[in-house]
Amino acid sequence: MFLIFFIWSSLPKKKSSSVRTERKEAPLSIYNFAIFKGLKFFTRSPADGLAFLISAIIEIFFSKFLFIISFLKLIKDQACDGVEIAPSLIWPEPIDSTGPERLLFQNQLKEFDLELVGFHSLLYSRPDLQFFLNKKIKEKTIKYICDLIQLCSDLGGKHLIFGSPKNRLLHGKKYEVCIKQIYEDFYKISEHGKKYQVYFCIEPLF
Q: Is the dihedral of CA 41, 45, 47, 51 positive or negative?
């Protein structure tokens, strides 16, 4: 096979006999894949390679699936009726989630008689998005949060909680300038939220 995907952390590593030639690989999560050409593991036995690939994909899907189920069960066992979630807990990139993926999560909530209250940790997986870095990044940040509003609405949620410690960085700008800007930015986001009947809330941190 010319191109294959595999779970890097699951492959057996061959230990180097020389410290000088040993390579240190960057740690990768279970969702990271590497692409290799002509990997010996697969060319040696294509059937075994395919079986390994399928089992790895199944392991990824069901480990995530079972985690979400156990989390929702825990919430219900505490006599809760609703749950506020960090969207990146459910999907690696929430705004790219598909219709069927969103429906699946809705059905999981219904299975435990829970409703989605809203989202928090909005930018947890996106530290690159900041309001005061520059205009281009600011616009991307606003659009991303607006997309989260639509996602929240699709799932039946009614509010987003914005905290984001990274966005307390002013990047050398004057406080008064940043306050004026953020009023305008938050107004744009809240007006977008009106279309979906989703409230954009500010976490009261000092």
A: negative
Cβ burial, residue 179 (10 Å; 0-12/13-18/19+)? exposed
Give the span between the Cα atoms of 86 and 120, in whole angstroms: 5
Going by C-alpha positions, the residue among 88, 84, 87 that lies closest to residue 115 is 84
Put simply, whether the predicted model's pTM sits higher than 0.85 gets the answer no
**pLDDT digit string (tens) for the chain, length 206 residues:** 333 333 333 334 444 333 333 333 333 333 333 334 334 444 555 555 555 555 444 444 445 556 788 888 888 888 989 999 999 988 989 999 999 999 989 999 999 999 999 999 999 999 999 999 999 999 999 999 999 999 999 999 999 999 988 898 999 999 999 999 999 999 999 999 999 999 999 987 65
CB 76 within 8 A of CB 114: yes
- Cα distances from 46 to residues 132, 155, 175, in angstroms, run 51, 42, 61
Torsion of CA 178, 182, 183, 184, to 10 degrees: 110
Query: What distance in Å separates the CA atoms of residue 179 and residue 30, rounded to the nearest whole number?
Result: 40
